Amino acid sequence: MSRFEHEVAFLFPGQGSQTPGMGQEYLREPTSRRVFEEADDILGWKLSDLCSEGSAEELKRTDRAQPAVLTVSVAALRLLQEKSGLRPRACLGHSLGEYTALVAAGALEFSDALRCVQSRGELLDRALPANTGGMAAVLGLERERVESVCAGIGDGIVVVANLNAPGQVVISGHREAIARCKPGLKAAGARRVIDLDVSSAFHSPLMHPAAERLKRVLERVAVNPPRCPVLSNVTARPHGDPRSIRTRLVEQVTSPVRWAECVRWVLDSGIKDFIEVGPGDVLAGLNRAIEPSARTAAVQNLTRSNGQEKAS
Q: Which ranges in the chain belong to alpha helices (H)?
């Protein structure tokens, strides 16, 4: 663990990182198993079974995927800290992962974050009629070109939803409007435009009904000042006081995720080492695109008893 003793940031993934069986490893360890037991009690259903035995189809549901990814990520966090003693100098999470980052920094209790995320998933699912909203990844174009094409589609809403890395932009909006954007995006130079397997138009103005209802949920939650900087997806700067944290989490529902800028803020602060804490390695791949010299380790390799590390 020597190369991680001082300056390390923790990365927490969002929806889309879930995979069948992602909780099995953590259910075998007492420290991380307790996180699943707490989640089962809070939710009133066996999230532990979903994370160990659930199908890909079950895990794709927004109201299931979001609490599942949060819980697996917190279980991984607890186990990592027990085995390594590591404490982050900064925390950042992609979309849903921002809640996990706030848990890691002591701003939210896991129990409160889980209730919020469960409500968030349900609200996002209900914000639009089924099959009317969607998202697509645009590869090979920067934000300005993508926005220019989206602005000229006519009827319907399509906006930039995720700024993941140079040349990796995600758009969100009405499915029919996204389809009309594709020829223009390809004509503007996009290498590929890939429909994402999501249930709605996340991080777009179409999620405004969900944001309004989530605001009432967050008003009932205790929020503490973070123990270390936690990057806001909305501002790409560290969160402020507890009141502003609630405000930014509400805004996050309808605002683009400025992920590349969040990572760049951490790099500019002098931190070059990252650990992706949770299922999958999506964020490690984005780190390579944002800054090839940044080192990102997989949490699974840091929590194994032999202590061997594998950086991505």
A: 24-27, 30-43, 47-53, 56-60, 62-84, 97-104, 110-126, 143-151, 175-187, 208-219, 242-252, 259-268, 282-290, 299-302
Question: Residue 153: which domain range?
Answer: 133-198
> Between the CA of residue 78 and those of 26, 72, 103, 242, 279, what are the distances in Å?
10, 10, 11, 23, 14
203 included as an active-site residue: yes
Q: Does pTM top 0.85 for this prediction?
A: yes
Q: Which of 198, 224, 254 is the last residue before a domain boundary? A: 198
Catalytic residue among 94, 174, 203, 239: 203
Q: Give pLDDT tens digits along the chain (312 positions).
A: 344 446 899 999 999 999 999 999 999 999 999 999 999 999 999 999 999 999 999 999 999 999 999 999 999 999 999 998 899 999 999 999 999 999 999 999 999 999 999 999 999 999 999 889 999 999 999 999 999 999 988 889 999 999 999 999 999 999 999 999 999 999 999 999 999 988 899 999 999 999 999 999 999 999 999 999 999 999 999 999 999 999 999 999 999 999 999 999 999 999 999 999 999 899 999 999 999 999 999 887 666 544 444 433
Residues 170 and 290 in one domain: no
**Is 95 annotated in the active site?**
yes
Residue 14 forms part of a structural domain: yes
Catalytic residue selected from 32, 48, 95, 255: 95
Q: For residues 235 and 293, state if they share a domain.
A: yes
